Every structure is written in C-alpha cells, then in structure tokens.
C-alpha cells in the first residue's frame, strides 16, 4: 500500500503559491493539502475534485499560535511581498524574513520532513541591495538551523504569470528579459525570467518522498 503525504502551504494565493497548491492537489502522492491564508478562499480558486484542500484562515502576526498545522510531511512557504506593497523596509522584512523564519521554526518543532521556501537569485547577506540582503540573511538563518530536516530554497529570477497586482517595473523587466533570454547563457542563465509553474515544480522536486 502506497503511503501518501500531507503538506502545508503558506502563501497559497500568490503567483507561485497558486500554481504550487494546484500541482499538489493534482499530485497523487499527497492526500491532504492545508493552506494557511489571511482570508477565506474563493471556491473557484482551485480545482479539487478529491477534496484534499483544507483552507485555514489565520493571523500571520500570531503565526506561532498555529503550530499544529505544521504537523505534516512537507511545508512549502511562498510568502513574499514588495517594499512598495509593504509600505516600508521594516514591514517588508516582517513578511519576507520574520514570517518565513517562524514557519521554518514551526516546521522544525513539529518535525516536518521537509521545508522549502522561495528565495531569490542573487540572494546575499552581504549585498548592498536591501531586498537581496534580506533574502540572503534568511537563507543563512534557515539553512544553519539545527534539526530542521531537508530545508531547501528555490532562487528564481523574475516570475512570469498572471498576477492580481500590477508591478510595472517588474513587468517591464520581464518583457526585456524575454527578449534577451536567448542570449543569457552559462552563468547568466539563472537570470532568465521563469514561469511560476516551473518554480512550483522545482519546489516539489526538492522534497524528499
């Protein structure tokens, strides 16, 4: 008899999170997908004929109070914002560093067998760029965390997909990136724009089954 897995997803309504959650629902290796969200999901957001999806509305400011939802095989963290959306560097760090770090700690405490999250190409704790510095600091904090099994980060470049929010600068970067992508070879290949669905697939591939 095949043993199926359970997973918890944070950030299931974002660009990568949506694709990831749907891929998990379609994956016969999983029998239950818990998604932690800020507000109730639209019934049309996901195709879930086997009723695997368990949406749970939580207060992310009190994420540590929901540790029971991390008693799963795999935890996927797709949380992320922009400085513009967050309103300040401090608010950005709260989401992109603190929330993700707490999620990793909860995954460790509940002995999840895998924790995968989204970082960024160019992440570097010593970077002069605030965004990349925060991403790098988070990688260092999680990857050196004792007793956290199979922690891994994906490091995408610009994400391609249908967003609800309009990010003008990012959209321009994607358009330019698509044009020059064929020229981005060797070490530059990692900077090519990437489909959100491909990032989600990479995340699943990093888990241990």
From TrEMBL:
It comes from Alteromonas arenosi. It comes from the Bacteria. The lineage of its organism: Bacteria, Pseudomonadati, Pseudomonadota, Gammaproteobacteria, Alteromonadales. Pfam families: NAD_binding_10. This is NAD(P)H-binding protein. Residues 11-133 form the NAD(P)-binding domain. InterPro entries: NAD(P)-bd_dom, NAD(P)-bd_dom_sf.
């Amino acid at each position: 008899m095949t043993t199926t897995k359970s997973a918890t997803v944070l950030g299931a309504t974002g660009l990568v999170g949506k694709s990831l959650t749907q891929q998990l629902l379609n994956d016969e290796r999983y029998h239950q997908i818990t998604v932690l969200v800020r507000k109730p999901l639209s019934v049309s957001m996901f195709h879930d004929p086997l009723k695997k999806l368990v949406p749970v509305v939580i207060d992310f400011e009190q994420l540590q109070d929901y540790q029971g939802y991390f008693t799963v095989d795999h935890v996927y963290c797709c949380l992320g914002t922009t400085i513009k959306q967050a309103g300040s560097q401090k608010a950005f760090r709260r989401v992109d560093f603190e929330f993700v770090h707490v999620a990793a700690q909860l995954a460790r405490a509940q002995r999840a067998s895998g924790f995968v999250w989204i970082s960024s190409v160019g992440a570097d704790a010593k970077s002069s760029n605030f965004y990349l510095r925060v991403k790098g600091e988070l990688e260092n904090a999680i990857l050196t965390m004792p007793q956290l099994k199979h922690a891994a980060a994906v490091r995408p470049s610009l994400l391609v997909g249908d967003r609800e929010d309009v990010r003008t600068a990012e959209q321009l970067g994607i358009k330019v990136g698509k044009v020059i992508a064929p020229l981005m070879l060797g070490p530059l290949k990692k900077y090519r724009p990437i489909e959100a669905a491909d990032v989600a697939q990479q995340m699943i591939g990093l888990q241990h089954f």
